[in-house]
Write a structure and sequence with these properties.
This protein is mainly alpha-helical and 184 residues long. The protein has a domain at 57-145: Winged helix-like DNA-binding domain superfamily/Winged helix DNA-binding domain (Arc Repressor Mutant, subunit A, Orthogonal Bundle). The chain is built from 8 helices and 3 strands. It has helices at 11-21, 30-53, 58-69, 78-85, 89-101, 123-144, 149-170, 177-183; strands spanning 75-77, 105-108, 118-121. It is globular and about 65 Å long.
């Protein structure tokens, strides 16, 4: 069985085709967004394969990583987990249930007079996330090492600007809206 070839970098070809088919339609975004979408697909596949080698899925990694990054005692409320992972409360519950069944986290009972449920890494969860993150980040650094360190920094800076703008739009605000109000 042969491994499928990665898609060619055909963004310029796509842009030229749309310029031909619909002259006057702006096509500049194709060179950026098509490449981001293609890179996202390839990176998602790479991450899935890398995580499979350490017997972990992306959702479990996200949960365990969020708890690990919180620092000692590696505990967060389910509400904090939802906000930090940008997922619904229901998705948090599913992730926590799976990780609990695997012995990676434990639920702590709500404090008297509250309904706040916390989730905490177990020793096994701490070891699992430490090993998975170490392997994953080492591997992913090799993927971007094709770029010089200054290029990596510049790409990260530009992507941060784009991501911020997209998040503003998703929140129903025009990018820069807060700045325009502040300067008036």
């Amino acid at each position: 069985m042969t491994t499928p070839k990665p898609p060619p970098d055909n963004a310029a070809q796509i842009a030229r085709a749309w310029e031909r088919e619909q002259p006057g339609v702006p096509v500049g975004s194709i060179g950026i967004l098509t490449r981001i979408w293609q890179a996202a697909k390839l990176l998602t596949d790479e991450r899935r394969r890398t995580l499979a080698r350490v017997s972990m899925d992306a959702a479990t990694l996200d949960l365990l990583s969020t708890l690990r990054r919180a620092g000692p005692p590696y505990r967060l409320s389910t509400r904090e987990l939802s906000a930090r992972s940008m997922i619904t409360a229901g998705a948090v519950t599913q992730r926590v249930d799976r990780a609990r069944d695997g012995g990676l986290v434990r639920r702590l009972p709500a404090e008297p007079g509250t309904r706040i449920v916390s989730v905490e890494l177990t020793d096994a969860g701490h070891a699992a996330v430490t090993g998975a993150v170490s392997r994953l980040l080492t591997y992913e650094q090799r993927l971007v090492d094709i770029l010089e360190p200054a290029e990596q920094e510049e790409l990260a800076r530009l992507l941060s600007i784009l991501l911020h703008s997209l998040a503003e739009r998703a929140a129903g605000r025009e990018p820069g809206e807060d700045q325009a109000v502040a300067t008036q």
